[in-house]
Design goal:
The chain is α/β, with parallel strands linked by helices. The chain has 2 domains: 7-207, P-loop containing nucleotide triphosphate hydrolases (Rossmann fold, 3-Layer(aba) Sandwich), CATH 3.40.50; 220-321, CobW-like, C-terminal domain (Hypothetical Protein Yjia, Chain: A,domain 2, 2-Layer Sandwich). The protein has 10 helices and 14 strands. A 7-stranded parallel beta sheet has the order 3-2-4-1-5-6-7, with helices on both faces. α2 (49-54) links the parallel β2 and β3 (60-63). α9 (233-247) runs antiparallel to α10 (301-312). The longest helix is centred in the N-terminal third of the chain and has 16 residues, at 73-88.
């Protein structure tokens, strides 16, 4: 800890599907990051990313149902206070660091401002930096990544290039140079080069004004779907391919945790037109049920739900949009 009794809190931000959860999984395996607590903010009503992290660190808390920079900032404070209470009661080992993963559309500036403004939290946690993941493949495909992406880059104290193996070396160098022009103060590194040991005083995001309300999350919506019973993997893969072929430019992120009939849950991630290879988790963390979260921009979530209903037919999913209204199939 940089100050006795004060634990560093690192904000991990970055665009949807840029590799934040993968980065956290890597960090949590490091010996110097033992005794780390993780807060995961998810935009959909159903949280999925925390399932992947709990197999590495049981002290993972999910903050679903809203963007951490606006709707759920009070939830972050509550979660940190609960962490302190649990630790003081002796139910968990002392926590030496906290990692907060924001949604891919979060503006880090108001998140940092909230944490710095809380008198109680300041006695226990010090925001030491904002780490932002940058998807080299996504930027190579479309250089204009939107207002939220630019805000995250400007707020970063450390920029981490991801998926560089999916682009040419020249494209990776060009992106690194572009990031240095946008934020000269933030080092641009790979996942392997991250060093959280060095302390910082005030994160850069503390001096950055938040995004205007009319630009943040404009046209963005999310839909969460739960399915009973095993999912036919081949049929589901066909549906995902058809969905992304038709609407990939408006599918900001799709995350699925699937029961395919085997012992292990299958995780599937897609970003716009790109589907990443499925991964198997070692066990179920909670009820055994398939869950799907789709985050869209300028695409009504009801269209995605209706397409899934038509394709799966008698499986008859029930969907809950991010606003909380429940949609029941006809």
């Amino acid at each position: 800890m940089s100050v006795a009794g004060v634990r560093p809190l690192t904000v991990v931000s970055g665009a949807l599907g840029s590799g934040k959860t993968t980065l956290l999984r890597d960090l949590l395996t490091r010996p110097d990051l033992r005794s780390t607590a993780v807060l995961v903010n998810e935009l959909g009503e159903i949280g999925l990313d925390h399932h992947q992290l709990r197999h590495v660190d049981e002290r993972t808390v999910v903050l679903p149902g809203g963007c951490v920079c606006c709707a759920t900032r009070s939830d972050v404070e509550s979660a940190l206070h609960e962490l302190l209470a649990t630790e003081e009661a002796g139910h968990v080992d002392p926590v030496r660091r906290v990692l907060l993963e924001t949604t891919g559309l979060a503006d880090p500036a108001p998140v940092v401002a909230t944490l710095l403004a809380s008198p109680t939290l300041r006695h226990h946690f010090a925001v030491d930096r904002v780490v932002v993941t940058v998807d080299a493949q996504a930027v190579a495909r479309d250089a204009d990544q939107g207002a939220e992406w630019l805000q995250q880059v400007v707020c970063a104290d450390l920029l981490v290039l991801t998926k560089t193996d999916l682009v040419t070396a020249a494209a990776a160098r060009e992106l690194a140079a572009r990031l240095r022009r946008l934020n000269p103060a933030a080092p641009v590194v790979s996942r392997a080069e991250i060093d959280l040991a060095a302390t910082r005083s005030v994160p850069a995001a503390a001096a950055v004004p938040p995004l205007p309300a009319d630009r943040h999350l404009s046209g963005v919506a999310s839909t969460s779907v739960t399915l009973d019973g095993p999912v036919d993997w081949a049929a589901f893969a066909v549906w995902v391919s058809a969905l992304l072929h038709a609407h990939g430019d408006r599918i900001l992120r799709m995350k699925a945790l699937l029961d395919t009939g085997g012992d292990e849950p299958v995780v599937l991630d897609a970003v716009q037109h790109v589907v990443h290879p499925p991964r198997h988790l070692p066990r179920w963390d909670g009820p055994r049920a398939s869950s799907l979260v789709v985050i869209t921009r300028d695409l009504p979530p009801e269209r995605v739900v209706a397409a899934l209903q038509r394709f799966l037919g008698r499986r008859r999913p029930a969907a809950a949009p991010a606003g909380g209204d429940r949609v029941t199939p006809p």
